[in-house]
Each structure stands twice: as C-alpha cells, then as structure tokens.
C-alpha cells in the first residue's frame, strides 16, 4: 500500500477545508498510515489519558502519533515506522501533551479541526476546551472519496481474504452433522477462520436458521445458540475473514434434511437475484439504487418481495460496512473499484429461508465477484 501517496493526497484535500485533523486508531488511520488495529472488545478497555490516542495531522507537516504508554508498549504501536511518536506516561497530564502538539503545529486562534467519525466524545470535549475558537467537521468525509475506490492492491488483499473465508467454510462443511447446536457451528466457523489465516471474524459470526419447528429469530443470540439443528431446517451463514485489516463478508445456505420443491425454488430465486445484482454493478452506467432494484425485482416478481427484508448490499473494505449502500434511496453513481457485498435473501419466520453473499468489484461491464465457490445448494442428508 502506498501510504506516502495516501497521506500526500489527504493532506492536500485537508488543506482546502481544515487546519488540523485528528484520527484515532481506526480504519481511517489504518488506511492513511498503516497503523494496525486489534480485535475489538465487547466492553471498553481504557488507559490513562486514552483520549489523546491517535494521529494529529496538519497540511504540509509530518504526522504526529500520540499514544498512552499501554498502547505503545503492550499494543505494539510504539514502533510505528518513521512516525513522530509521543508516548503519554501513566501519570503525565494528557492536556499538556496535546497543548505541546498543537503549539508545534502553529494553529490559528480559530482553527478548523477535522475529526474522524470514530473519535470518542472525550477527545472532542477536550479539544473544545483546548481550542475554544475552533470549528469542527468530519475528517472521515474528507477521506471518504479516497477510501471508497479500492486500488488493485486492496482488491487483491480482499480476494485473499475471500479465499481464507471459503477455505474456512469448506472445513466447516466437513464437520456439519444433524443435532449440532448453533453455537457448535458458530464456534467452528470462528476456529476455522483463524486456522486458515484470519486474525478472527470480521464481525460477529451469525446464523439465520429457520424451518417449521425452528422459528427465525433475529438478534437473540443467547436464545438461538443452544438450539439443536435437527431436520428439516435451512441454515444461513453470514461471516468473514480479516486480512491485513481488510474485512470480508460471505454467505451461503445449507439444508439439513430433504429441502423439497418449495425450498429449491426459493434457493434458486435468491441465486438468480444475486446474479442480476452483480450484472447491474456497471461502472459509470448504473447507480446503487438501480443495482438494488435489479436484484429485488427478481424476488418481487415471484411473490416474495416482502421477505427480501435486507438491503442488497453495502460498501466494504477496512470496515465491514462502508458507504455507499445498495438501497433504493442511494443515488450514488457506481465507479470502477468500488467494492460491495451482494447479498439478497428470502427470510421467512416459520418456514425455510435462503441467502447468498459475496464481495463484488464494480467493473465497466458488470460486477466481478471475489468468491465464487459453493454455488449449488449444500444438503446434509
């Protein structure tokens, strides 16, 4: 990745709208400077003076990375290349460190400050106190036009993340058996992702399972995880690998037992819908909304429109979900190099459901999927 070029382009754009930018350790910072992130925690993990943690950037000046001691030492960030790193010791005054950084950047009395959307409120509050004359804007929106179009290097990383995801799925398939619990399957997915080279799951691994005796429940993991998967039931996978900070997102449908004619028709509808959505991802010739409509029409025409509850897809890269979105309300003109999930589904609460998902690159003549395996219905008899 050409971080020097990214920084140069960002600072040029920044200089048009702001005098200072602050980016915490986040996807924005990893994109711009290669500073890595760790897996997130369910609860907050705090260090003294954590609000200073991140990069302080001004147009035309070298970036400054400020870190609490724990992040520098135990987080492995202290040796971040040739960056100027300021380490805040446990008993140091964080405001004094930031005042020094701001003085060195020679800001005006009424600076324009761009802050990443991932910035914590404690940092914003402290900056308001330190810079009472400042006005604030989103650094993420300044950076967004750069992040939304992926380079071929980024696409190659995503392709490799997709290969890890598919390899993990293949290993999971070999272990599926009637009577497993949903938690058994989720745990096996997460294990196989790491075993095949992922840092971990790129988001919380999810299953959306349904059948006449297996009602579909959204967002109730502790209620669904203990359930045994006994035929007949459709099992909808939703998971992805992490590679070099980039996130994959993948989905397939598996059936335990005899799927029957009705389910086979539903499955084929979903696959046809995805094919239509992928074909519609034509750079410079279609909008995000038009791609969504192309896929949705296939399912709606067959009478299942109300069961397509999800958007067709979302941008993806260093974050699992990135703008733009493949929805009826997004008029963004598609551009070559954009990456989207294409994930149509038919989800029904008291009978069988189906979904499929791949990451797809926008190209001039239609989308290029980065994963293409397991296209047939997978049945565990």
Describe the structure.
The protein folds into two domains: 3-146, 3-Layer(aba) Sandwich (Creatine Amidinohydrolase, Chain A, domain 1); 152-380, Creatine Amidinohydrolase (Alpha-Beta Complex). The chain has helices spanning 3-17, 27-33, 69-73, 94-104, 121-130, 139-148, 152-173, 182-195, 221-224, 260-279, 288-301, and strands spanning 20-23, 54-57, 64-68, 84-88, 112-115, 135-138, 206-210, 233-238, 242-243, 246-247, 253-256, 313-315, 322-326, 339-342, 345-346, 354-355, 358-361, 368-369, 378-380. The chain is of the alpha+beta class. A hairpin with a 6-residue loop joins strand 2 (54-57) and strand 3. It contains eleven helices and 19 strands. It is 35% helix and 18% strand.
CATH class of the largest domain: Alpha Beta
Total domains? 2
Characterize the biggest β-sheet. 6 strands, mixed
Give the count of helical stretches: 11
Q: What is the number of E strands? A: 19
- In the predicted model, the low-confidence regions spanning at least 5 consecutive residues are none
| CATH topology name of the largest domain | Creatine Amidinohydrolase
Question: How helical, in percent, are the residues?
Answer: 25-40%
Strand content: 15-25%
Give Rg in angstroms: 23 Å
Overall SS class:
alpha+beta
Order of helices and strands: HEHEEHEHEHEHHHEHEEEEHHEEEEEEEE
Taken from the alpha-carbon principal axes, the silhouette is globular
Intertermini distance: 46 Å
The CATH H-level superfamily of the largest domain is Creatinase/methionine aminopeptidase superfamily
What is the residue-averaged pLDDT?
Answer: 95
CATH architectural label of the largest domain: Alpha-Beta Complex
Strand order within the widest sheet?
4-3-2-1-5-6
